[in-house]
Amino acid sequence: MNTEQIMSAIFLIAVLVLILPGFLSTNNKIKDFLKNLSIWTIITLVIIVIIYIIGG
Questions:
Q1: C-alpha count within 13 angstroms, C-beta hemisphere, residue 2
Q2: Which residues are CB-neighbours of 19 under 8 A, at least 6 positions away?
Q3: Are the CB atoms for 27 and 33 separated by under 8 Å?
Q4: What total of structural domains would you count in the chain?
Q5: Which residue among 8, 9, 32, 45 is buried most deeply as judged by most CB within 10 Å?
Q6: Are 51 and 8 a contacting pair, CB within 8 Å?
Q7: What is the residue range of 32's domain?
Q8: φ, ψ at 54 (rounded to 5°)
Q9: What gap in Å lies between CA 26 and CA 28, rounded to an integer?
Q10: What digits encode the pLDDT tens for the residues 12-35?
Protein backbone atom coordinates (compact mmCIF):
# COMPACT_ATOMS: atom_id res chain seq x y z
CA MET A 1 0.00 0.00 0.00
CA ASN A 2 1.24 3.42 -0.81
CA THR A 3 0.73 6.56 1.24
CA GLU A 4 -2.28 7.77 -0.78
CA GLN A 5 -4.19 4.55 -0.17
CA ILE A 6 -3.42 4.66 3.53
CA MET A 7 -4.55 8.29 3.77
CA SER A 8 -7.77 7.48 1.88
CA ALA A 9 -8.50 4.61 4.26
CA ILE A 10 -7.83 6.81 7.30
CA PHE A 11 -10.10 9.52 5.86
CA LEU A 12 -12.97 7.06 5.30
CA ILE A 13 -12.58 5.61 8.80
CA ALA A 14 -12.57 9.13 10.30
CA VAL A 15 -15.76 10.01 8.43
CA LEU A 16 -17.35 6.78 9.64
CA VAL A 17 -16.40 7.56 13.25
CA LEU A 18 -17.93 11.04 12.94
CA ILE A 19 -21.16 9.89 11.29
CA LEU A 20 -21.83 6.56 13.02
CA PRO A 21 -23.17 7.76 16.42
CA GLY A 22 -25.75 10.09 14.88
CA PHE A 23 -26.57 7.52 12.23
CA LEU A 24 -27.31 4.84 14.81
CA SER A 25 -29.35 7.12 17.06
CA THR A 26 -31.65 8.28 14.26
CA ASN A 27 -32.23 4.84 12.76
CA ASN A 28 -34.22 3.02 15.42
CA LYS A 29 -36.29 0.95 13.00
CA ILE A 30 -34.50 -1.85 11.15
CA LYS A 31 -36.12 -0.89 7.82
CA ASP A 32 -34.85 2.69 8.06
CA PHE A 33 -31.45 1.48 9.22
CA LEU A 34 -31.01 -0.88 6.26
CA LYS A 35 -32.22 1.74 3.78
CA ASN A 36 -29.81 4.37 5.07
CA LEU A 37 -26.98 1.88 5.37
CA SER A 38 -27.41 0.90 1.73
CA ILE A 39 -27.37 4.57 0.68
CA TRP A 40 -24.14 5.18 2.61
CA THR A 41 -22.62 2.02 1.15
CA ILE A 42 -23.36 3.23 -2.37
CA ILE A 43 -21.92 6.68 -1.62
CA THR A 44 -18.76 5.15 -0.18
CA LEU A 45 -18.32 2.81 -3.15
CA VAL A 46 -18.77 5.70 -5.60
CA ILE A 47 -16.10 7.72 -3.76
CA ILE A 48 -13.71 4.76 -3.80
CA VAL A 49 -14.27 4.19 -7.53
CA ILE A 50 -13.73 7.89 -8.29
CA ILE A 51 -10.51 7.92 -6.26
CA TYR A 52 -9.37 4.77 -8.07
CA ILE A 53 -10.14 6.23 -11.53
CA ILE A 54 -8.49 9.57 -10.81
CA GLY A 55 -5.46 7.99 -9.18
CA GLY A 56 -5.20 5.16 -11.65
A1: 4
A2: 40
A3: yes
A4: 1
A5: 8
A6: yes
A7: 3-55
A8: -65, -45
A9: 6
A10: 899 889 988 887 787 778 888 888
